[in-house]
Design brief:
about 450 residues, alpha/beta, five-stranded antiparallel beta sheet, 13 helices, about 30% helix, about 25% strand, binds NADPH dihydro-nicotinamide-adenine-dinucleotide phosphate
């Protein structure tokens, strides 16, 4: 008789949990994964994937406009929100099925129920108590709504993927990833968008040139960006479905108010606090470099930890954890220089240090910056400009950070990230021959 029911019990079948369970099973572990919603987690069901599909949908508006400069006459255009939702739902259902198949083929037992942790080696799930040598908490996070009157009348990104009617006028609060991406999506699809951010400029934490450039471009496009602006209440309106009231006293009628005001880790009700698992101020599980919590048999990966809330990070941490536990060799993920992108209009992508971070860590920093009209827009007539920037340590010539705002930035920075990760110098960037004519070649020709 084995000592435990399972070698590995995973709570939450999102990106991190699924990867960890599959890798663990591949190493011979007996694995169960509990999930009370669809399989795939935030990224697949209500995050990255549907968001990117929506972003594609909204970019067609630009394409139709830009085509005229190239001799095209585009006929009457009409956007059908219900058709987009249905197409997106079909794709998410397909992915859901694939995830389930992957788990089944790996021999992972999927338990369609909510699990809680009873003691360091026991979970309670679907009325049963099951023991496991190792428990993984991979329960992700959920959108946070500020505690203001009428907050419940607003939506978050969760609901934005299922709105029964397309909002003609939407007020989005926040200035981070989700706010910028959804402002671009709804604006591109034809809505009037007010983006209310309590700070200035957008995307705190990124390089200041990136933040300013992106903010300017969004304003140029017609998003009504309001800085230093906070919603203090939401109420039903007489002339419009909702009215948002701001700290300034101003009021705005709209169809929807969306809170894109950050996310909180899903730890409430899991039983972790009772067991003494250390949590951070935001409720995230505190983990070490091997994804171990303060209790040796309980681990955590993904958005439920305080680490960067990015799918590829959760996947890498999940895979390495399984290798650590079941292949007998401790494997940690290097969390330095993780590239990231904001799929806004225009998109942003970045890897490594911002200029501000570099100046705080290195005595002498060289900065290379370029801003230009992409070739495509010489004929389209669009006034959008792209911006690229390299941050270099003057003492070693090493490229510490690469940043871009503009078309294809995420696709371009992914490649540049390899060079930054490898510690490439500016001289090595310069020795690389560009591909002409591209925007990407600017990264190897900056002086
Ligand atoms: P972010 O932390 O990126 O942004 C939250 C925003 O809400 C900030 O602008 C913040 O302001 C503001 N805010 C927070 N609390 C309040 C409040 N009480 N009142 C008013 N404004 C408030 O969170 P997101 O939800 O946008 O994204 C969460 C994470 O998910 C991201 O950090 C990212 O890691 C990940 N993500 C990644 C994506 C991608 O890879 N493309 C896409 C979407 C999400 P302030 O700046 O002042 O703190």
């Amino acid at each position: 008789m084995p000592e435990f029911d399972f070698d590995f019990f995973v709570i939450g079948a999102g990106s991190g949990g699924v990867r960890a369970s599959r890798v663990a099973a591949a190493h011979g572990a007996r694995v169960a994964i509990a999930e009370d919603r669809d399989v795939g987690g935030t990224c697949v069901i209500r995050g990255c994937v549907p968001k990117k599909l929506f972003a594609y949908a909204s970019h067609f508006a630009d394409d139709f406009d830009d085509a005229a400069g190239y001799g095209w006459t585009v006929g009457h255009r009409r956007f059908d929100w219900a058709a987009l939702l249905a197409a997106k739902d079909r794709e998410i259902a397909r992915l859901n099925g694939i995830y389930k198949q992957l788990l089944a083929r790996a021999g992972v037992e999927l338990i369609a129920s909510r699990a809680t942790v009873v003691d360091p080696y026991t979970v309670s799930v679907g009325g049963r108590r099951l023991s496991a040598r190792h428990i993984l908490v991979a329960t992700g996070g959920k959108p946070y709504r500020p505690p203001i009157p009428g907050a419940g009348l607003g939506i978050t990104s969760d609901e934005a993927f299922h709105l029964p009617r397309f909002p003609r006028r939407i007020v989005i609060e926040g200035g981070g990833y989700v706010a910028v991406e959804f402002a671009g999506i709804f604006h591109g699809l034809g809505a009037e968008v007010v983006l209310a951010y309590r700070g200035e400029p957008l995307l705190r934490g990124l390089d200041m040139d990136v933040r300013r450039h992106l903010s300017d471009e969004m304003i140029k496009r017609g998003v009504d960006v309001r800085f230093n602006c906070e919603i203090v209440s939401v109420a039903r309106g007489a002339d419009t479905p909702l009215v948002a009231r701001f700290a300034s006293g101003a009021e705005l009628g709209c169809d929807e108010v969306m809170f894109a005001t950050g996310r909180t880790p899903n730890t409430a009700g899991l039983g972790l606090e009772r067991l003494g698992v250390a949590l951070d101020a935001n409720g995230g599980v505190i983990v070490d470099h091997l994804s171990r919590s303060s209790i040796a048999s309980i681990h955590a990966v993904g958005d439920v930890t305080g680490r960067q809330a990015l799918t590829p990070v959760a996947i890498k941490d999940g895979g390495k954890l399984a290798v650590t536990l079941f292949a007998g060799k401790p494997a940690a993920v290097d969390h330095e220089a993780i590239p990231t992108a904001v799929f806004g209009h225009p998109p942003v992508a970045t890897v490594g240090l911002t200029e501000e971070e570099a100046r705080g860590r290195y005595p002498d920093v060289r900065v290379y910056r370029t801003s230009f009209t992409p070739l495509k827009h010489t004929l389209s007539g669009r006034s959008e400009r792209s911006m690229m920037k390299l941050v270099v340590d003057a003492a070693t010539d090493r490229v510490l950070g690469a940043h871009m705002v503009g078309s294809d930035a995420p696709e371009i920075i992914q490649g540049v990230a390899i060079a930054v990760k490898l510690g490439a110098t500016k001289a090595q960037f310069d020795a690389t021959v560009g591909i002409h004519p591209t925007a990407a070649e600017e990264f190897v020709t900056m002086t």
